[in-house]
Structure formats: structure tokens, C-alpha cells
Design goal:
With about 350 residues, the chain is of the alpha/beta class. It is built from ten helices and 13 strands. The chain has a single domain, classed as NAD(P)-binding Rossmann-like Domain (Rossmann fold), CATH 3.40.50. Belongs to the NAD(P)-dependent epimerase/dehydratase family.
């Protein structure tokens, strides 16, 4: 849902190559585990904060292809180094000629998210691009569309737990005014294409993801290290942070439950946590006490009800405190004072 910040680099490790040492051990914990082996998989936006660690895991046992605009040659090189086969494809005007005719699974994680108010372009990429992608690879076994909890209409209660059947709405988030509405449009397109093409699809509404590479909690960790104020929206905000380890483990399961009509579920960690609680905990891991500044506009709370996800694929493996410890220790090893 939220991207990575490079506001405070400090004593940082090489995060592009750092991998969680417990990833494979954790893989044995789940209750409804599924794996991907020997498959040809297409990942859109493979250099992204969520997608890159996923690609690193998938290439171990699968043939993985990654497509993006790759405006930054270094980002493409980083993905190439994992063993992923990359091609330049712009979802606004895609040219598929350099790709295989079929993939077993398509993982659509690429998004257009910008501070501009260019609704036309946001819809062209996020909505139309999804339709073109699904149409081109309609012969796939299943598709995972990664949406966002930003599609929900804002509830004034910062601790409210959003369910899949709650109201949707254009929340016009200050960090990207076109994001919510274009992702709602994407969901509508994906639902329609699943039925038109008879293509099993899962639409997973991502909450707050994190890893040593980034995510909202890591942006806030960077602020703490840089001795910056941490803004919190007035009225409070809560989220369900989900570790990259659980994301990677749950992708095969989400593909397993793909259906026609599309399966729709929230996707986040098991625990809803207030911003103040988890940022204070992050601070304790690097010897910092947060200074919260309450603002009228900002990232609204989007804590979720996990009932549907738990019914479909079970619970998570990594508690948010354990995940934050690993993330802080990897990102700032010289500052880490936690367990």
C-alpha cells in the first residue's frame, strides 16, 4: 500500500541483496501451506518493495519473468541479478512480443502512484493496464491482483476494522490523490475480466507491508533515526503490518483460492496496531523516542478484519514485533539495541 522512503540512510546494510535468514524455516509453520515449484510466473513491477523480495524467493524453484517500464537501469539490473528474466513493458501501452505465449500464474503488483492529479493516466495504467494484462494472458491458470485498503471509504474511527463488504470511496490520499479511485477502477476491471475470460482471479487488498527494503513502518523508522517528527493523522490511525516473509508464503495460497467470480480478501498482518504503539516499539529497537505530531490530513488508518483471509488461507507466521526486530536489525545494524 505504501512505498519506501530513503529519508535517513544512516548505518545501512546492502538491502538489495540482504535476505531474511529465517525465511525458509518459517515456511514450515503455516496451517494451509502451498508452494510454487517448476512454474513459469510473470511478475509486474518486480523491482518494487513488495515484489522484489517475492521475486528473490520465487526464482529459487521457478522460471520467473518480470515486466516494468524500468526507467531506472539500476532497478532492472537489480532484478536481473536475482535470475528473473526482465522485459521492458509499459502497461499504459503494452508490447507483449518479447514474452512467452503463456504463464502458469500472473502476479500483478505494478502500480501507478504519484502526487499528481492525473486521473486519466492513473486509470490508463492501473485499470486499463490490468484489463490488457489479463486479456493477453487469459490462458494462465490463475491471476493475483494486488489491490489496496485505500479503496475503502474512510471511517472516522481510526481503530475501525474494515471488512471486504464495507463501503468503497475516493479518499484522495494526500500522498497520491488518484490512487484510491484508480485502484477501485482496477478492481472493477479485474472482476469483469475474470468473468469474461473465465480466468480464476484473486484480488487481495494490501494493508501495510514492510521489509528491510521499505514500507510505511520503515519510512517511520527512517524518520526516527533522522530525529524527525513522525506525523500521525488526528483522530488516530491503526494498521495491520505484514512482513515480507508472510507475503511470500501467502502468495501461493492466494493463487490457490483464485476463482470465477474473483475472490476478494483483505491482506495484512494478524494484529491491528496503532501508529503510536508500533512506532514507539520501532524507536525502542534503535534507541529513539518518537516525537508525534498530529496533523489534519495524512495517511488514514486502515486496520482490517481478517476473518475472510483466515477462512481462505489461515493466519500469519510472523508477529509484527518479531518482524520489526529483524527489519530494524537488518536496516540499521549499528544502531540496533533490541532483543
Amino acid at each position: 500500500m505504501f512505498g519506501v522512503s530513503h529519508a535517513a540512510r544512516g548505518a545501512r546494510t546492502n538491502l538489495a541483496t540482504a535476505r531474511p535468514p529465517i525465511a525458509r524455516a518459517v515456511a514450515t509453520w503455516g496451517s494451509t501451506m502451498s508452494t510454487l515449484t517448476g512454474k513459469r510466473i510473470l511478475v509486474t513491477g518486480p523491482a518494487g518493495q513488495i515484489a522484489f523480495p517475492l521475486v528473490q524467493d520465487l526464482v529459487r524453484d521457478n522460471e520467473v519473468w518480470g515486466i516494468a517500464r524500468f526507467g531506472d537501469p539500476e532497478s532492472r539490473a537489480k532484478v536481473d541479478e536475482t535470475g528473473c528474466i526482465t522485459r521492458v513493458v509499459d502497461l499504459a501501452n503494452p508490447d507483449w512480443q518479447d514474452l512467452p505465449d503463456r504463464f502458469d500464474h500472473v502476479l500483478h503488483l505494478a502500480i501507478f502512484q504519484a502526487t499528481s492529479a492525473d486521473y486519466d493516466y492513473a486509470l490508463k495504467v492501473n485499470a486499463e493496464g490490468t484489463a490488457l494484462l489479463m486479456h493477453r494472458f487469459a490462458n494462465s491458470t490463475s491471476v493475483l491482483i494486488v489491490s489496496t485498503v485505500a479503496v475503502y471509504d474512510s471511517n472516522p474511527d481510526g481503530a475501525y476494522l474494515y471488512r471486504e463488504n464495507d463501503l468503497l470511496g475516493d479518499n484522495r490520499a494526500p500522498y497520491s490523490p488518484t490512487y484510491g479511485i484508480s485502484k477501485i477502477a482496477q478492481e472493477g476491471v479485474a472482476r469483469s475480466m475474470a468473468r469474461v475470460l473465465n480466468l480464476p482471479t484473486t484480488i487481495a487488498r494490501m494493508n501495510v507491508s514492510y521489509s528491510p527494503l521499505g514500507g510505511l513502518p520503515v519510512m517511520q523508522l527512517d524518520m526516527l533515526v533522522a530525529d524527525m517528527d513522525v506525523p500521525v493523522i488526528a483522530g488516530g490511525s491503526s494498521f495491520n503490518p505484514i512482513d515480507e516473509i508472510d507475503i511470500n508464503l501467502q502468495v501461493p495460497q492466494l493463487l490457490d483460492v483464485a476463482s470465477v467470480p474473483a475472490t476478494i480478501c483483505n491482506w495484512g498482518g494478524d494484529d491491528a496496531v496503532s501508529t503510536e504503539e508500533y512506532v514507539t516499539y520501532l524507536g525502542s529497537l534503535v534507541g529513539k523516542t518518537p516525537r508525534f505530531v498530529y496533523v489534519p490530513d495524512g495517511i488514514a488508518g486502515r486496520a482490517i478484519d481478517n476473518t475472510r483471509r483466515e477462512e481462505l488461507i489461515g493466519g500469519c507466521s510472523v508477529h509484527w514485533k518479531d518482524g520489526f526486530q529483524r527489519t530494524a536489525k537488518t536496516r540499521y545494524p549499528d544502531l540496533y539495541v533490541g532483543p
